[in-house]
């Protein structure tokens, strides 16, 4: 249930359309890290990753693995319908997706989202009590799953992930993250030391990822050039509307960030924050799970408090 809001002019938004508009304005205000340059591949760019062409068999498999959904999407094509006609559309759909990858261009409908506001607390009162969950094109989501199936093995092949990241990786979870931390803390305490722990949570983490910095990181790991251009197109010129019951707001622009709820967003955010561990001073430990981070440091007895490097680590993460 979305409560009555007061908009920027002091007007009480009571209808569902007015509530959707107030939420849309609030969500748009979070996109503060606009990129000022368009993406171009560096001169003489080379990559060992092959172009991820999708076959008819793969397309059919990914369509059939999708869960049934009747959510309203920008392209008005529900999963349930796609699964019914999967054998007939797998071939032309794979050709469309391969053409998109070859050109490095994403169809306009794939850049649109219908946002469902999900409350972050039990009794939301203001627009900031809601998080934006994006409902995107079902066809795009199918293709994203294929892209993800090619991206993850490549990252493992180049040993991209730092060992402190427990999100996005097989056989790792919040449980493995906590067990490793608890083991380190126990060892420190058994040595008679103090352990200082600091927990971080990014504000609007997915919404504020700067596209230019993210793409720079993707270039540095030598992703395939066609895939890079496709991802740049996927991230750029994104628009959204907010839906409350059956009412939608006017169209707004998402100037930065990765859409919450999209298939590729978690892995793209993971790539963006992966280098944090390498920026920390010696003696400071780090455990990550997606956008949640904890820093901790062992402080031996009789040590000089001025030598605590956690402050340096905090500055490094902020930077």
From TrEMBL:
Pfam family, one: RVT_1
InterPro entries from the UniProt entry: DNA/RNA_pol_sf, RT_dom
Coiled coil regions, renumbered to chain: none
UniProt domain Reverse transcriptase: residue ranges: 99-319
Classification via PANTHER family: REVERSE TRANSCRIPTASE DOMAIN-CONTAINING PROTEIN (PTHR33332)
Protein's name according to its UniProt entry: Reverse transcriptase domain-containing protein
């Amino acid at each position: 249930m979305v409560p009555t809001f007061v908009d920027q002019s002091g007007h009480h938004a009571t209808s569902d359309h007015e509530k959707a508009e107030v939420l849309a304005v609030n969500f748009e205000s979070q996109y503060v890290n606009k990129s000022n340059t368009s993406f171009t591949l560096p001169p003489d760019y080379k990559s060992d990753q092959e172009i991820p062409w999708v076959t008819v068999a793969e397309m059919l498999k990914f369509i059939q693995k999708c869960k049934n959904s009747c959510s309203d999407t920008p392209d008005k094509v529900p999963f349930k319908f796609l699964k019914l006609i999967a054998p007939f559309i797998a071939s032309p759909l794979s050709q469309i997706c391969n053409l998109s990858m070859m050109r490095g261009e994403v169809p306009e409908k794939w850049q649109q989202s219908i946002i469902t506001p999900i409350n972050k607390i039990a009794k939301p009162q203001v627009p900031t009590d809601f998080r934006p969950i994006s409902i995107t094109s079902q066809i795009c989501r199918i293709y994203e799953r294929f892209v993800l199936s090619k991206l993850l093995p490549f990252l493992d092949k180049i040993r991209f992930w730092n060992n402190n990241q427990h999100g996005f990786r097989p056989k790792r979870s919040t449980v493995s993250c906590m067990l490793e931390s608890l083991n380190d803390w126990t060892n420190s305490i058994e040595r008679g030391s103090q352990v200082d722990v600091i927990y971080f949570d990014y504000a609007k983490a997915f919404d504020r990822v700067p596209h230019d910095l993210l793409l720079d990181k993707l270039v540095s790991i030598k992703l395939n050039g066609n895939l890079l251009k496709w991802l740049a197109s996927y991230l750029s010129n994104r628009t959204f509307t907010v839906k409350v019951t059956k009412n939608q707001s006017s169209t707004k622009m998402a100037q930065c960030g990765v859409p919450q709820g999209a298939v590729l967003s978690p892995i793209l955010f993971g790539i963006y924050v992966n280098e944090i561990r390498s920026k920390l001073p010696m003696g400071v430990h780090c455990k990550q799970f997606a956008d949640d981070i904890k820093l901790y440091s062992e402080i031996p007895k009789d040590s000089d408090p001025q030598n605590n490097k956690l402050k340096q680590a905090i500055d490094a993460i902020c930077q």
